[in-house]
Write a structure and sequence with these properties.
Blueprint lengths: L4 E3 L1 H13 L4 H20 L4 E5 L3 H15 L4 E5 L6 H9 L3 E3 L7 E7 L11 H11 L2 E7 L22 E5 L2 E2 L13 E5 L10 E3 L19 E5 L4 H12 L5 E5 L11 E3 L3 H4 L5 E6 L7 H11 L5 E3 L2 H5 L2 H4 L6 E3 L3 H10 L8 H12 L2 E4 L5 E3 L5 E3 L12 H14 L4 H18 L6 H13 L3
Parallel strand pairs: 1-8, 2-3, 2-5, 3-4, 5-6, 6-7, 7-9, 10-19, 11-12, 11-14, 12-13, 14-15, 15-16, 16-17
Antiparallel strand pairs: 1-10, 17-18, 18-19
Helix pairs in contact: 2-3, 2-4, 3-4, 6-13, 6-15, 13-14, 13-15, 14-15
Length: 464
C-alpha cells in the first residue's frame, strides 16, 4: 500500500491553497470534505438523531455540509451554532442547509454529536464558553465524532490546549493525516480514525503514515543465505534474545543464529553458536546483527557491543546496547544502523549525544537521527521513525495490550529480520513496526510477548 502523507498545519494550508490556485473553490473543497465524512457519521448513527456542533470557521462550514447531507438522506439532524459563520465558504454552506438550526444555549439529545467547532488551525485554548458548550453536548450524546481534529487539540504537537476535553469515538481526518492523529497524548482521545480524501496533491518531503508493506514469496533460486542471515548477540538475560530471534524467524530472514557464551535451551529451529563472538562475527555471510535485548550493562556487555560495532555489518541496536552506546563507538562504523529506544533509552541517547531532549517526540527523534547518523525508531504508545536524511514516518496506534514485558524485544527482532532480508534501514524500521502492530491485532488479548512473536508470521502473510 502506498503510504499516506502526514502534514503539518502549515503544509495543509499550503496544499489547500495550491488546489484553490488550480481552480478548485473553497466551497468545492468543503463539499468534498463534508460528503466524504458523512458516510462515516451515518454508519455510526445508524439513522438515529445526530447533532452537529458548528464553529465560525471552515471546520464549522464542513459541519453545515455534513448536516445537510444527513438531512437529504432522510436522517434526523440538528445543528447547534456555537457562533454565526464567519467565512464566505461557511456562510454559503449555512445558506444551503435546510434543516433545524439551534442556538448555543440549546441542549439537544441524540445518538451522535459531530464536533465541527474548530479543526487543524487552532493554536490557542478554547474559550470557557466554547469548552463548556462542547462538554455539555458531549454528555447528552452516546457517541462523539470529531471532524478533522477534536476541538482543543494542537495539530502539530499532539497536545491538548484545554484540560478535560471529551474523548471521541471516531475522528475523521480531512484531506491528509495531521501529526496529532499519531502523537500522544492527543491520539489517545480520538477513537477510531478514518481519512477522507479531498484531492490534495503530493507534498514533497512530507512525513508518511506507515502502511502495510508488500512482500513477495522467495524466488525459485532462493536459499537461507540469500534471504538473509541474522545474528542475534546473546547477553546476560538470554530470554530477551530468544524472543527477538523467534520473531525474526517469522519476519523474512532465512536464517537466524544466536551467538551465546554457553549453550541455550532453545527450540530446534534456532541455531545457537557458542563460538567466541570475535571469531563468529568474521562470518561474511552475516547480513545483519541485532545487539541489545538482554545484553546487560557490565564490562562483558560493553565488550560485545564494541566487537559488534567494529564489524561493518547492518545492525539494530536495542535495549541495553542503547544505554551503553557512546558516540565514539560509532565513529568507525559505516554500515547502516537502526536504534529502537523507548522513552528512557531515548533520554539516555540524548544525554550521550549532548542533545537537549526538548520538543515533541518527532522533533527529538529527528534531532537524534541527525546527530547520530542512525535511523531512530522512537517507540512507545506512539512510535516515530526518523532518518538522518530527514525522512520521517509515524505509526498508527497499536494495541494497548502491547504494554507487557518482552514486546520491545519482539519489535527489535522483527525490524532486524527485515534488515537482514535486504530492506534498507528506513524501510526495515517501518516494515517491522507495521508487522509488530499487525501481530498484536491478530493476538487474542491479553497476550504475552511469546504469543506476539508467534503471530508475526501471520502478519507477514497478510503482506503477500
Amino acid at each position: 500500500m502506498k503510504p499516506d502523507p502526514v502534514l503539518t498545519a502549515a503544509q495543509m494550508r499550503a496544499a489547500e491553497a495550491a488546489l484553490i490556485a488550480g481552480g478548485t473553490s473553497v466551497e468545492e473543497l468543503m463539499q468534498r470534505a463534508g460528503h466524504g465524512a458523512v458516510k462515516w457519521v451515518w454508519r455510526m448513527s445508524g439513522g438515529r438523531a445526530v447533532t452537529v456542533l458548528c464553529g465560525p470557521g471552515n471546520n464549522g462550514g464542513d459541519g453545515w455540509v455534513i448536516a445537510e447531507a444527513i438531512r437529504a438522506r432522510g436522517g434526523e439532524v440538528a445543528v447547534v451554532m456555537a457562533a454565526e459563520p464567519a467565512t464566505d465558504a461557511a456562510k454559503n454552506a449555512r445558506a444551503l442547509y435546510r434543516g433545524q438550526a439551534l442556538l448555543a444555549d440549546a441542549s439537544p439529545r441524540g445518538e451522535v454529536l459531530v464536533d465541527c467547532l474548530f479543526g487543524t488551525g487552532l493554536t490557542r485554548p478554547l474559550s470557557a464558553a466554547y469548552l463548556t458548550l462542547l462538554q455539555r453536548l458531549a454528555v447528552r450524546h452516546d457517541k462523539l465524532v470529531a471532524i478533522d481534529l477534536p476541538s482543543g487539540i494542537e495539530a502539530d504537537l499532539g497536545q491538548p490546549l484545554n484540560k478535560d476535553l471529551p474523548a471521541n469515538d471516531l475522528t475523521i481526518a480531512l484531506g491528509a493525516w495531521k501529526f496529532a492523529h499519531f502523537l500522544m497524548p492527543a491520539a489517545a482521545g480520538m477513537g477510531t480514525q478514518k481519512l477522507v480524501e479531498i484531492g490534495i496533491a503530493e507534498v514533497p518531503e512530507a512525513a508518511l503514515a506507515i502502511a502495510r508493506p508488500q512482500f513477495a514469496a522467495p524466488g525459485a533460486e532462493a536459499h537461507k543465505y540469500t534471504r538473509g542471515l541474522l545474528g542475534v548477540v546473546v547477553g546476560a538475560m538470554p530470554g530477551a534474545a530468544l524472543l527477538a530471534a523467534q520473531a525474526a524467524q517469522r519476519a523474512g530472514a532465512g536464517y537466524v543464529r544466536l551467538h551465546a557464551d554457553a549453550p541455550l535451551a532453545a527450540s530446534s529451529e534456532l541455531v545457537v553458536s557458542t563460538q567466541p563472538l570475535a571469531e563468529a562475527l568474521n562470518d561474511k555471510r552475516i547480513a545483519a546483527l541485532l545487539v541489545g535485548p538482554g545484553l546487560g550493562r557490565d564490562g562483558a556487555a560493553r565488550e560485545k557491543l564494541a566487537l559488534a560495532l567494529a564489524e561493518q555489518v547492518p545492525m539494530v541496536l536495542d535495549a541495553d546496547a542503547l544505554v551503553l552506546l557512546a558516540p565514539r563507538l560509532l565513529s568507525q562504523h559505516t554500515a547502516p544502523l537502526i536504534a529502537t529506544p523507548h522513552e528512557g533509552e531515548l533520554r539516555a541517547l540524548e544525554q550521550a549525544f549532548e542533545l537537549p531532549g526538548s520538543g515533541s517526540k518527532v522533533q527529538r527523534a529527528v534531532a537524534l537521527a541527525q546527530a547520530s547518523g542512525m535511523v531512530v525508531v522512537a517507540k512507545g504508545a506512539d512510535s516515530v521513525v526518523a532518518a538522518p536524511d530527514g525522512r520521517l514516518a509515524l505509526a498508527h496506534r497499536a494495541s494497548t495490550w502491547l504494554s507487557t514485558a518482552g514486546t520491545g524485544d519482539v519489535l527489535a527482532g522483527t525490524i532486524a529480520s527485515r534488515l537482514a532480508n535486504g530492506a534498507d534501514r528506513f524501510s526495515a524500521a517501518c516494515e517491522g513496526l507495521w508487522l509488530h502492530g499487525e501481530a498484536a491485532r491478530l493476538c487474542e488479548p491479553p497476550f504475552t510477548a511469546g504469543q506476539l512473536a508467534a503471530k508475526v508470521g501471520s502478519a507477514y502473510a497478510n503482506c503477500l
